[in-house]
């Protein structure tokens, strides 16, 4: 392939990578993490920034200082903060090409660049002003000059100075990019010899000395630990899930990779591979994973997909570094297949622009405006981040009054609010982050049963409920009910009776600690991804407050894997005008980690204080979840 044609292909790849990253730049919203960083740029001076805006974050100072400088010199508009990171993402494509060509050949360089340009993983982090794509960019620059140093290219001290500079920047970017810098630096000790060894040690010492000012922050953040308040420890399948994620859950992408590896294995027999760098690049990716995984399992959770992005380009170079140089038509054909497949998967399978560009925080307010214009007499509930909401209220000019769910911390307070609102208005609007209590939707539908609409966004949803008495639930079973009564175990016929309203009730006497239970294989429920299992039961009011628990349990044949309960007492508050009150318990299945064993769902009432109680309408139902609630990081089905 001629150099001219090679450069034309590279320019096309870079242009495509730029278009996919810059597309509709002015409408790319801030993510939650970006808002966190933005709010921590409001300090008046650097000492306050370091003390209150950097140490508490868990990341090194570099990117926060960079954002602070941009906000205070140019502005805080999202496109202003995102543009430098997008440019770093595009530059990373070119750097991968340079490293790939130097290490392997032009075919490997172009194929790897094509993947870098079109995969969602590097595209998304290019559009987020956080220390991920910046770390990838700095890691690539560091390695580019590191290669020149260990291979003793011309202008040694110029290359050595730039290696030290970008390595030092990388140590200030992210703790995992710091780790990557250490691994790359130590790798060089295996390749330099004699006088070069002493010079290389000097370069390492320079990097260490440049990091000394940051040590106090590093040790403070190390003492704080990981982020287990919201990040769970990785499972054994983490790496397998990561590979599915980086190749966009796309079968054709996996097929291309397998074909490339098979071609490489054939070449392996011919003994024409750059074994040194293939091994090195693999180690550079796998070692941060192993260290992060071990640290997360034994100490505190830190391992995320974003943590591995610094070694990601070298994973690609390892995968495709087995390919021998191909003629121009084969190379062009491969590039066309790769960019076409990845771009299609990015836009349609991953729905990247729909998911990332539609902020739940914005739609909580704009969807509300649409509803209010049609019917001003609408009750409103919001579950969101107050500072982020205030930011958008100010920018969008929205002034409608709304009620915060967090201002009603107990079920009793929420029930009182819903009851009062249902007496005044015929509909209720809810805008809620996915972190909202799973019981809230069923509680709302006790008073506003009909779901008029639901809009799904990454990280949250908006709803409109009406008072129409339409059936809304997909019931699995109801007890006591003649149609379902055989589904329940350990009930006594003598305890079944009809109340004054001619409804079946069940009486649990003071000798019984456990109510009749319902057990079913989870597989038999055919649950959709991200769905909920809603459980509800009506408890008869009496002179004494019933303090039993509504229980749900997920068990395999050997042990319990998940257990949850709801106290009846928490739902009886403010219920004074009815003879029954309803207890709710909902399981958010997307957030429950289960083994691959056969799982059984069980539910029952635990009458631990052995009180006499009557109940009816013990219902289990399935509620659809939000298919894109975690759509930037999980498969969308």
Throw out a few tags for this protein.
single chain, 637 residues, alpha+beta, 6-stranded antiparallel beta sheet, 5-stranded mixed beta sheet, 23 helices, 16 strands, elongated
Protein architecture, described:
The chain has 637 residues and is α+β, with helices and mostly antiparallel strands. 49% of the residues lie in helices and 16% in strands. It contains 23 helices and 16 strands. The chain has helices at residues 3-22, 32-39, 46-54, 62-73, 78-103, 106-118, 120-126, 133-150, 156-171, 175-188, 194-211, 215-224, 238-246, 251-269, 275-298, 312-320, 328-349, 352-357, 360-374, 386-396, 411-424, 440-445, 569-572; strands spanning 379-383, 403-404, 427-433, 450-457, 460-466, 474-479, 488-489, 496-498, 504-508, 517-521, 532-540, 549-555, 560-567, 580-588, 600-606, 613-623. The strands form three sheets. Strands 6, 8, 9, 11, 14 and 16 form a six-stranded antiparallel β-sheet that branches. A hairpin with a 2-residue loop joins strand 4 (450-457) and strand 5 (460-466). It is elongated, with a radius of gyration of 29 Å. 39% of the residues are buried. The model has no long low-confidence stretch (mean pLDDT 91).
